[in-house]
Amino acid sequence: MNFILFCIYSLKLFNLKKVRITHSLIKKLIKSEEILTFSYFIKLKYLHSNSTIYNFSIRKASRLINVSPNSIKFHLKKMEEMNIIKTVNNKSGGVNMTFSSIEKVSKIYGINHNNRCGSIMLRESESVQDVKTRLYSKVLINNLNKQRYTIKGKSNSLMRKRDQVNKLRKSGVNPEILKRSIASERINFDTFICCETIGEMINKTKMTGYNQLIRMVSMGILSIKKKYITVLKGCKKELFEELCKNGELIKGKHYYSRKDSSILKNIGFSVEVF
After folding, report:
1. Which residues lie below 8 Å from residue 61, measured CB to CB, with a gap of 6+?
2. Can you tell me the distance from the alpha carbon of 42 to that of 38, in angstroms, rounded to the nearest whole number?
3. 108, 179, 223, 246: which sits with the fewest CB atoms below 10 Å from its CB?
4. Residues contacting residue 113 through CB under 8 Å, at least 6 positions apart
5. Would residue 172 be called left, alpha or beta, if left means φ above 0 and alpha means ψ between -120 and 50 degrees?
6. Could you read off the pLDDT of 27-66 as tens digits, one per residue?
């Protein structure tokens, strides 16, 4: 009970809002190219605890989330088409706008919104573009979690083989074949992703994938480390310069020359989730 109260206090202290949402819904919104509109929806919905803006107007909404009235108008029209907002005339002659629950939005898209679905954390100060990046990060983190699951499975399999070797040794049997199998297995414990894959996951270009990854890092969602592979060993500087000049290598950005003259290529990023 004390832990729950601490979590509630922390959310209020840091002006954080917890949005429960499945990565399946985000993937559908990405595929239908409605993810930006949904980011506007999230930003407006969580301005008030009851998901309603009283005496709503385009100008008022644009001022509340610091975007242009034209942008609000465009995305509200799309929200109406998506059937995720409702307007009711109030007694003062104005309009109250209510934003649907995430559960209802999930049902519209045929997604099961259950207690096991994950969440994203939003800060009040974050922009619509920040909200979109947090939604993208949910899909990326799901991919990394699958990688972790696979790595754990390989690691457990290797541990079982090692246990078998020890048992066979104790029984006096020479487990040479099993030992060779273990020796040939190499497990990479890094969770890895390249910008091209990110671009495909969010239905955008490789460059947009890279830009979104950098935004996630700057927002404190992920940490990354560049990963390289050796392309050429013992390559002389003159040959390296010639390959760059011919356009076969892109000097500095994707490839670079090491002191031992090996040419390395940046193949992506090792990623850790905070």
Report:
1. 44, 53, 72, 76
2. 6
3. 246
4. 20, 22, 25, 102, 103, 106, 107
5. left
6. 999 999 999 999 999 999 999 889 999 999 999 999 999 9
Record the tokens describing residue 41, joined without a space: 């929806």
Give residue 59's region: left, alpha or beta (phi > 0; psi -120 to 50): alpha
Question: For the chain, how many residues are written?
Answer: 274
Cα dihedral 104, 108, 111, 115, rounded to 10, equals 0
Q: Please indicate whether residue 124 or residue 51 has the higher confidence score (pLDDT).
A: 51
Tally of domains within the chain:
2
Question: Which is it for the CA torsion 60, 64, 66, 71, positive or negative?
Answer: negative
Does residue 133 form part of some domain? no
Q: Give the H/E segment covering residue 112.
A: none
Domain span at residue 261 reads 192-273
Last residue of a domain, one of 123, 156, 179: 123
CB 147 within 8 A of CB 191: yes
pTM for the whole structure: 0.78
Same domain membership, residue 12 and residue 117: yes
Encoded amino acid at 56, one letter: F
Higher-confidence residue of 102 and 145: namely 102
pLDDT at 146: 86
Structural domain includes residue 78: yes
| Cα–Cα separations (whole angstroms), residue 126 to 43, 44, 67, 74 | 9, 12, 12, 21
* Residue 224: inside a domain: yes
The per-residue pLDDT for range 153-173, each reduced to its tens digit, is 777 776 776 676 666 566 665
Q: Would you say 157 and 235 are in contact if contact means Cβ atoms under 8 Å apart?
A: no
Q: Is 51 a member of any domain?
A: yes
- In this prediction, residue 272 has a pLDDT band, given cuts at 50, 70 and 90, of confident
